[in-house]
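Q: Structure tokens for this one, please.
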Amino acid sequence: MPAPRALAARPATRPAAPPGAPATLLGLELMRFVCALSVLLWHYQHFYVVGPVTADMTHDHAVQPLAGWLAPFYGHGWLGVQAFWALSGFIFFWKYGQAVADGKVAAGRFAWLRFSRLYPLHLVTLLAMLPLIAWYRAQTGQDYVYTHNDAEHFVLQLFLASDWAGRSEWSFNGPIWSISIEVLAYGVFFALSRLGWVRPWQIGAVIAVTGAIYALKLTPHPLVLCLFFFYLGGLTHAAWRWLQGTTLALRGLAQTGMAVALALGTGLAFMGMLRPMFYVALLTPVAMLALLALVQPRSERISRGLTTLGHTTYASYLLHFPLQLLVANLSGANPANLPLHSPWWLLAYLVATFGLAALTYRWLEAPAQAALRRWSDHRRVKA
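A: Here is the predicted structure, written as tokens:
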């Protein structure tokens, strides 16, 4: 059971949108929430686990609540991570791509913006894992789901470097693996953008190279796939900007082509002729463009609600596994003591996770990010 999910870092300020474009990316906020929901549903199977997950372990998703309706999420929800990488790519090219190419964003400033967004909650959840892991070990003599909970991996986690070696040695708050890989992608993005690699054909070249490396299995390192989806998101951003400036007729033709491609891809995937990873690579850009075009509510209340949903995604990703370990401890490490087949239990798991995530964003993430950035700005002014 891999433990995916990398969430897109939220931009601090918004650049001018292209002519005719929405002022905010509410469609992407909704998509981020759906991706987070996908990962949470995929990881629902953790509730059935006693001890660590092994390579030969199997799980029957059909026993999970509402399995008929949620089968795609139970079976392939981990692909929400790849969609998140693409969302990150879109947002980073929207926010930083040209600014970095023009030399308007220094490397130190870029790194600090990412650090202030990602690290505070990562540190809190990492430290929270220590007593939870000790509690589970005291009850069972083993670890829960992830096994590499030692000093070496703790130090790697502290530096957000847990999976830089690409060994898939998931540890502590396991889902952080995808964020550690995305941190590497940020470095590649900044370097290539500083070299001026922000034009669509250059973005396409990165996609082609990483896609070929992945298809030929030249390396199993997850950075290759992360860069593929990250730059796929960047190319989607370029397509979005082009669509805003083109004629209505060309826009309609492009949208028709995307709908036909998606229908064909869906049919092939349903018949088992298109691998899920490739289907997500097709679905994600189309979904982003469609949601950007369709999700433009006039109601301020709906806009705030969608923004709130987007705010919950990073916290829900980092909080859901510690919450699962807490529940496992409270159950005496015995899944039989939990009503896991009940839709109401599933609903409670989702509501509790996203509810706590909303509170975490308001009272921890946002204040910590603002404080770190104020401190940095103050130091820059004094210097």
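A few notes: Residues 1-23 have pLDDT under 50 and may be disordered. Residues 173 and 209 are 32 Å apart (CA to CA).
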